């Protein structure tokens, strides 16, 4: 895992538009798992476009600190090979 927020942002910039699995801790022992793709990155947050059939939310955003503190884990998939391209764990 990257040690700095700037490193996390640059790694996510390289993954724009790629399919991912999102695992987020939503408090009180609740964990959500959704699939979608990385839509946008901004200086402080990134946006994930969720698959429509799985969730009532269309888009969610998280800060890079959420990845650093392991509140959010992202797993990107290589669509050509079906392999994991990068995991935020």
From TrEMBL:
One of the Pfam families matching this protein, by short name: VEG
Gene3D superfamilies: 2.30.30.100
Single GO biological process annotation from the record: regulation of DNA-templated transcription
Residues spanning the signal sequence: none
InterPro entries: Protein_Veg (IPR009366)
Name of the protein in its database record: Veg family protein
Species in which this protein is naturally found: Ectobacillus ponti
């Amino acid at each position: 895992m990257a040690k700095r927020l700037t490193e996390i942002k640059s790694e996510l910039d390289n993954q724009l538009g790629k399919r991912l699995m999102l695992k987020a801790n939503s408090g009180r022992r609740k964990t959500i798992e959704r699939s979608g793709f990385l839509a946008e990155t901004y200086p402080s947050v990134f946006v994930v476009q969720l698959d429509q059939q799985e969730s009532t939310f269309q888009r969610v955003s998280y800060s890079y600190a959420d990845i650093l503190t392991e509140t959010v884990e992202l797993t990107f998939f290589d669509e050509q090979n079906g392999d994991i391209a990068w995991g935020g764990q």
